[in-house]
Specification:
This protein is α/β, with parallel strands linked by helices and 584 residues long. It has helices spanning 2-19, 44-52, 56-66, 91-101, 135-149, 165-176, 190-207, 210-229, 232-254, 268-271, 274-283, 319-333, 346-358, 391-408, 421-441, 453-456, 464-483, 498-508, 510-520, 524-543, 552-575; strands at 29-30, 40-42, 75-81, 84-89, 115-119, 153-160, 262-265, 288-291, 294-297, 308-311, 336-342, 366-371, 374-375, 449-450.
Amino acid sequence: MFRALRSEVEDAVETALSSLDLPTDDLGVEEPPEDVPAILASSVAFRLAGEVGAPPPKVAVDIAEEIDATPYDYLESAEPQGPYVNFFVSDAYYAETLEAGREEAYGHLPDTGKDVVVEHTSANPTGPVHVGRARNPILGDAIARVLEFAGNDVERHYYVNDAGRQVAVFTWAHETFDESDLPEPERDRSDYELVRYYRKGNAYLEEADDEDLAAAEAEIAEIMQGLEAGDEETYERVAVVVDQVLGGMRQSLERLPAEFDEFVKETTFIRNGDADGVVDRLQDTEHAVYEEDAWQLDLSAFGFEKNLVFLRSDGTTLYTTRDLAHHEWKFEEYDEAVTVLGEDHKLQAEQLNAALEILGNDTDQLRQTFYSWVNLPEGGMSTRKGTGVDLDDLLDESVARAREEVEDRLDSRIRDDELDEEDIDRIARQVGIGAVRYDIVSKQPTKGITFEWERALDFEAQSAPYVQYVHARCCGIQSEAEAAGIEPSTDVSLLDTEAERDLIRVVARFPATVERAADDLEPHVVATYVREFAETFNTFYRECSVLNADDDAVAAARLGLVEAARHTVANALYTLGIEAPESM
């Protein structure tokens, strides 16, 4: 309803401005502060004061008097307040919000007809996923969910770097060193077992004398050249380590959960000739230069001082070259391509965009979002040196701490349902992993994060458990109401307290929140919304009892509102990739 109301308000303001012969290019429609009872407001009077030659409050009065709310379904009235015009809603707004919220799919927007691919994570397949990169799968998965909720047909891709130097080093190390030379793996899983070879290989390359180093580098270069030449045996050698490590990494990612529809290998675009085709086309452009024994793109016309190398002196392509072919494939297959990248890739991404334009692509199809790192108070992380904190460690610790918190709260639970060990394990997993996801996804992507347990697992503050508890409360109320024989109704006329109306109003905003998050690729907007939703629901919970309502009709109407609240919070949590427990 909020989206429809916003359209009505924009139309009303535009109509009023036109009738006053004033410009309509900026309507200034926005959500007012919390202490203003209106649903929407317009600040357009500020902009027009100079043109009209009157103070903003006088302009606001003129505009409000010109607005006719009669033709609209949800707009009841417009009233000036200082320099603003405030907009109030009709009973139909509340009634239809309650009706819509009782649908399980509430918040889903109409189909856009667009096919969207979201590429995220794409960490090099050299070892377990570590905490520093955990933001990518969490943010990427949430973006994919938000876009899907906003009516798009979404596919999730992991772009596998199986052609670069790191993978060549990994393959060489796996074939060179004996397992007896390696430490015990940290976990009994393929990525933990094989990363030992990668670490051993890097340590060897750092410490070897000149002769041994030259011999090792020659073998590594041979692997890279074999990949570039399309040598099937080399592909199979590389796949031995890549596929096994990916298998282990997927198990970590599925715990978040972050699942993928397709793992697209970089070597695909070497083997099918697309990378060579990109090289040929780039060489034919006016931006191509041959300098320092390599083919490069002069991107000075695009504002870049540094050239972009796309073909080495030995005839091998680079990651960027193959990624250009990858992106052109995505442009052919999908209407829109979204990529989630670490902030250290921003320059490369901007150069990639310029190169795609040079190749004649419509880069409006491409949207990129960047994120800063996740840190732990314990310090730095590095897969290569083996000093990092792995994602599995973080999730295990979070689940263990969540279990302690759940067990501590067992005696103070209000619901009379019995929780067995299996229930406690389930809740601990839902809360523990939800806490990690929420703490990461709730921040603006460009802001760095230091993960703190006390904040993430706080049941009383801005955290996943705080929001998850609202869903569990809704389920408890519905269960007890059903046992008492109360059937939900949509008689919104009986929901006239401030707490009830506030809750309906915040329910109404959910679809618009999904729309904004999808438009801006910012799922933290949903996280902020659902926290505010939880605060509003808890006020309703304290002030408006369902089971002890004044009469059965009020109880039924409140139960209908609880049902709408449950669907709202469950779907909001879903878009963030967080489970909604039925009991806690």
